[in-house]
């Protein structure tokens, strides 16, 4: 019944979503503008670089792990694989479409604009996505920096558990965002249920470019952010009809312990937010068609400073900044 209901809702939503992704603002080619300039003397600015969007096609929590008590077996179990499978199903069903939009896609450019948005997408060849009808709370803009050597992204000191797999470290050529002050990261949006969003602060996205082949991709991606304890103790949404409270599945929080004789904690301490947890996800993303009503180019979000090596930016005066502009949606 639930599956049938979801299919009915999807069928009813498809025409509206198709309209949203299919209608774009008028644009003019460089040839047209060149001719206008030559014939009339009116020489408008050339059109901005078209935005290039990448939909996240895999997203896995690698640190911390989640722990739940199995009432049937009467034991505490590591439920991370179950959570990641749940996330993967939502992505495969197009219930969730987190998208990175680059303006422009140019690995040789020192600085580019990055939009991270919980978009609406329709599967197909190609997949079509849009930020039309997306709430402004679920789209955020930031500067991002391309690197031709070394790697992108990083981890916070003393925030990883050596018993878990390490987060991805994207190799160059790669891109890393400035540290975003805060944004929700959507994990699930099941029909008839409250979407499951993690309220993260100091978010950083990084990925390696794999854009020479088809489809173009962002690979070995790493998404990290801090969830303060106050946010983690609140319901983040629903999973299969059950309220999901992050704190209740964290070791050191209210989560159970696999071995009561050898307890441990995944809880971290933040200099500003106090107790909470640094969360690390690995991801990959594939290029999709993108439709938007946003004016181009985007306004400046954090200046043209250089990266300070911490995921933030450094202004011409040397002061660190993490300014972002939240979009307005539709």
From TrEMBL:
<keyword id="KW-0732">Signal</keyword>
<feature type="signal peptide">
    <location>
        <begin position="1"/>
        <end position="20"/>
    </location>
</feature>
<feature type="region of interest" description="Disordered">
    <location>
        <begin position="293"/>
        <end position="330"/>
    </location>
</feature>
<feature type="compositionally biased region" description="Low complexity">
    <location>
        <begin position="313"/>
        <end position="330"/>
    </location>
</feature>
<feature type="compositionally biased region" description="Gly residues">
    <location>
        <begin position="302"/>
        <end position="312"/>
    </location>
</feature>
<protein>
    <recommendedName>
        <fullName>Lipoprotein</fullName>
    </recommendedName>
</protein>
């Amino acid at each position: 019944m639930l599956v049938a209901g979801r299919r009915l809702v999807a069928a009813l939503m498809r025409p509206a979503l198709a309209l949203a992704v299919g209608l774009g603002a008028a644009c003019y080619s460089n040839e047209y503008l060149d001719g206008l300039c030559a014939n009339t003397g009116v020489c408008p600015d050339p059109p901005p670089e078209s935005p290039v969007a990448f939909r996240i096609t895999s997203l896995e929590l690698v640190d911390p792990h989640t722990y739940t008590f199995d009432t049937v077996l009467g034991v505490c179990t590591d439920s991370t694989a179950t959570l990641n499978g749940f996330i993967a199903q939502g992505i495969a069903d197009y219930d969730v479409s987190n998208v990175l939009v680059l303006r422009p896609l140019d690995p040789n450019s020192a600085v580019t604009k990055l939009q991270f948005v919980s978009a609406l997408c329709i599967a197909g060849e190609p997949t079509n996505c849009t930020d039309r009808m997306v709430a402004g709370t679920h789209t955020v803009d930031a500067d991002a920096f391309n690197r031709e050597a070394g790697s992108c992204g990083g981890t916070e000191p003393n925030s990883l558990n050596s018993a878990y797999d390490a987060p991805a470290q994207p190799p160059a050529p790669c891109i890393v965002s400035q540290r975003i002050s805060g944004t929700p990261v959507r994990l699930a949006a099941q029909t008839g249920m409250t979407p499951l969003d993690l309220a993260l602060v100091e978010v950083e996205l990084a990925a390696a470019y794999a854009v020479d082949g088809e489809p173009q991709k962002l690979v070995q991606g790493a998404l990290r952010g801090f969830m303060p304890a106050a946010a983690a103790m609140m319901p983040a949404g629903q999973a299969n009809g059950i309220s999901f409270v992050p704190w209740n599945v964290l070791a050191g929080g209210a989560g159970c312990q696999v071995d009561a004789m050898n307890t441990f904690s995944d809880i971290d301490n933040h200099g500003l937010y106090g107790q909470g947890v640094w969360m690390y996800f690995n991801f990959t993303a594939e290029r999709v068609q993108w439709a938007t009503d946003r004016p181009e180019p985007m306004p400046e979000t954090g200046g043209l400073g250089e990266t300070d090596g911490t995921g933030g930016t450094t202004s011409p005066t040397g002061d660190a900044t993490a300014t972002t502009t939240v979009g307005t949606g539709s």
